[in-house]
């Protein structure tokens, strides 16, 4: 059973025969997954593979998470990418810890191994790098899709970029991996590891690739930076609501790749009533990450908010009425938004109002100059963020004594 | 004067204006030359640039010889080249010493600096290499002629080969070179040094390239492995004889690139009487490397040997007649050749005879089975190696007493 679960959704296996032999051998296999040290927030896209690893772990195999802190600590030496800052050793360790804490929602981290590739890559000197680089040709390296395209289009490729697949591949040599899993976008790098192991006299690892989960936009791979994700640490109601927005055409993929619901059952559900299928999926992932008990509230809240109602259970912010005496007991809209914690500044508050993102007592407000009486109200930003504002303190105006 | 001499024959200068400014500045410049640590035998091809360095030295500048021992110690990690064995630290140091001793025939090594690039390249770790590699693009690297051709013809280029120009270029950064000189085949590498210095915040070095001296075959660059060379440590008579064989069409290049004889004078000599010009050139290089006193003998010997005569002054080998008593006082031809020191083994002696390379008393001998009386004779190999063999000891045969 676990074997089927471990390979559920797999796109390619290099090579299947050999993998099945190793699995049948009874040996405890080392299953490698490379993790990016710079983005520690996990979403459903990450779980596709983590859940496969869980199945391998349940079969008794050793899961090895490799935190790629070596390249993280170099940053982008060409200085082209501003989104890739140089990380310190401490930051990579913190990110590694945070990664493991989140991973713990899916598999048993006590039974897993976490290693940092700077441990061996930092020890390599120039001669070692030349030796490593001698094992791979330029032509093979340029077969990687992104290199092929950039080379063809005369876009610059810095020489150091050619070394990264080797560094990543060498990780397999260092941990003597039996199997490496990864997304289809990693196929090239995983195969480099396979070939380097052969060059270094090891049995080449088996490589299994899995699909990339498409995000809520229905186009791009799920990622935090594209804001098309469902985070596994998000509150139940947010998770539920986002799940309801998954495009119909890819809902079945979400079932197959991120839940244990049998494929046939999911297929039938999606084909017979896609809205009911969404609800079934949304309830399933809330259950998976927050427990059965969280489902009813998430459903309830979705039904009321989706119907435009104000939720009953919301954050309360108190504002002192006294502060607005001199203004005739009136508070400016932008101040109100900021004090309610819905915007960090009045400038940002202004933009929200202009974007029709702010409602008071469930009605959109559009006048940034609006002055309101200091009377209790509900203010909301977007569909999900509701704040109950209560004015406290002096309620009647006192003329000078 | 020295400035003209320093630039005599230069093919390209990057950039001439800037070089002239630096030379005029009065600053003591660091002039870099990269040396190959694996082939310590210097020939006239090497002197083209060494003599230019001598002129720079006479102007008061510092000559820095960089022994490229770093790559020498790595050898050929791809294992493709059997002619590039891995050198030990000791071997590279010995080769460096030997190089310097030979260089001393041309310039003042006391006033020069010799450094080994393993000193800084061995200290670089993987992160340093990535940083270095990030400064250069693949497209620029593939502009190097040999890479361009191999890439176009789908011949494999190992990734480590792309790193070598960077290592060599980084040498300029390490020694803070003001000027680098080299053969035209090194142009690309020298320019990498120039660009890396800029990237590392230094003033880019000036680059001067000089022609490659064509060897005695009139086709290929002079090199020991092609046996088309005149070594600067060869005996006067060999030097003289080889010089007489320089193809007429390239004799002028030899004058310009390897002597101080003014170009116009050389041109006139070559045009008016090419044989006399050869003699003039041959006498000049014997004088340069062995002194005026060696010229007459070399000329003499050339005239007699070239006329087929046996030289008067030759090596003498003594062989004990007694050793051949049991053979009826006869010595086999192959033994004779070996004992005369003309071959290391009888097998090699056999090959020499079969190749018609052996003469006795100036006549070619062709019978490898030949038995000779133990009588004094002159045996020779090729045109240059003559040995007087004297048989010593018992001269009359004694029957058993």
Task: Describe the protein's architecture and organization.
The structure is a homodimer of 401-residue chains. Chain A has 401 residues and is of the alpha/beta class. Chain A is 45% helix and 15% strand. Chain A is built from 18 helices and 13 strands. In chain A, strands 1-6-5-2-3-4 form a six-stranded mixed β-sheet, with helices on both faces. In chain A, strands 7-13-12-9-10 form a five-stranded mixed β-sheet, with no helix packed on it. In chain A, strand 5, helix 11 and strand 6 form a beta-alpha-beta unit. In chain A, helix 13 runs antiparallel to helix 14. The radius of gyration of chain A is 26 Å and the shape is globular. At the A-B interface, helix 4, helix 7, helix 8 and helix 10 of A face helix 4, helix 7, helix 8 and helix 10 of B.
List the helices and strands and how they pair.
The structure is a homodimer of 401-residue chains.
Chain A: H1 2-7, E1 12-14, H2 16-24, E2 30-35, H3 44-58, E3 62-67, H4 69-74, H5 89-103, E4 112-116, H6 118-121, H7 126-133, H8 138-141, H9 145-152, H10 159-175, E5 179-183, H11 187-199, E6 206-210, H12 236-244, H13 251-258, H14 263-272, H15 274-290, H16 293-306, E7 315-320, E8 330-332, H17 333-339, H18 346-354, E9 358-360, E10 363-364, E11 371-373, E12 377-381, E13 385-392
Parallel strand pairs in A: 2-3, 2-5, 3-4, 5-6, 7-13
Antiparallel strand pairs in A: 1-6, 8-11, 9-10, 9-12, 12-13
């Amino acid at each position: 059973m676990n074997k089927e679960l471990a390979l559920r959704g797999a796109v390619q296996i290099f090579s299947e025969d050999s993998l099945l032999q190793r699995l049948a051998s009874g040996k405890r296999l080392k299953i490698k997954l490379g993790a990016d040290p710079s983005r520690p927030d996990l979403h459903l896209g990450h779980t596709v593979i983590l859940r496969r690893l869980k199945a391998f772990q349940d079969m008794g195999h050793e899961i090895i998470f490799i935190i790629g802190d070596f390249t993280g600590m170099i940053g982008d030496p060409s200085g082209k990418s501003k989104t890739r800052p140089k990380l310190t050793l401490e930051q990579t360790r913190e990110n590694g810890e945070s990664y493991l804490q989140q991973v713990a929602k899916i598999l048993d981290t006590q039974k897993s191994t976490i290693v940092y590739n700077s441990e061996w890559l930092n020890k390599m000197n120039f001669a070692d790098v030349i030796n490593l680089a001698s094992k791979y040709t330029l032509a093979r390296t340029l077969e990687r899709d992104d290199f092929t395209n950039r080379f063809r289009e005369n876009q610059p490729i810095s020489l150091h970029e050619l070394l990264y697949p080797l560094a990543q591949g060498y990780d397999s040599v260092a941990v003597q991996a039996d199997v490496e899993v990864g997304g289809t976008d990693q196929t090239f790098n995983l195969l480099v590891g396979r070939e380097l192991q052969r060059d270094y006299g090891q049995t080449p690892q088996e490589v299994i690739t899995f699909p990339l989960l498409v995000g809520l936009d229905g186009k791009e791979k799920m990622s935090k930076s594209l804001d098309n994700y469902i985070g596994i640490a998000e509150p139940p109601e947010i998770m539920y609501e986002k799940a309801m927005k998954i495009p119909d055409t890819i809902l079945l993929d979400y079932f197959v790749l991120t839940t244990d619901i049998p494929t046939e059952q999911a297929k039938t559900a999606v084909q017979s009533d896609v809205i009911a299928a969404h609800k079934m999926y949304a309830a399933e992932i809330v259950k998976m990450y927050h427990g059965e008990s969280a489902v009813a509230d998430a459903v309830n809240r979705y039904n009321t908010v989706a119907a435009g109602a104000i939720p009953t259970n919301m954050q309360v912010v108190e504002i002192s009425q006294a502060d607005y005496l001199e203004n005739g007991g009136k508070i400016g809209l932008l101040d109100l938004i900021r004090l309610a914690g819905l915007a960090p500044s009045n400038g940002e508050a202004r933009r929200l109002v202009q974007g029709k993102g702010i409602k008071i007592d469930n009605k959109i407000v559009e006048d940034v100059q609006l002055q309101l009486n200091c009377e209790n109200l509900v203010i909301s930003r977007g569909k999900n963020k509701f704040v109950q504002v209560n004015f406290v303190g002096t309620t009647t105006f006192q003329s000078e004594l």
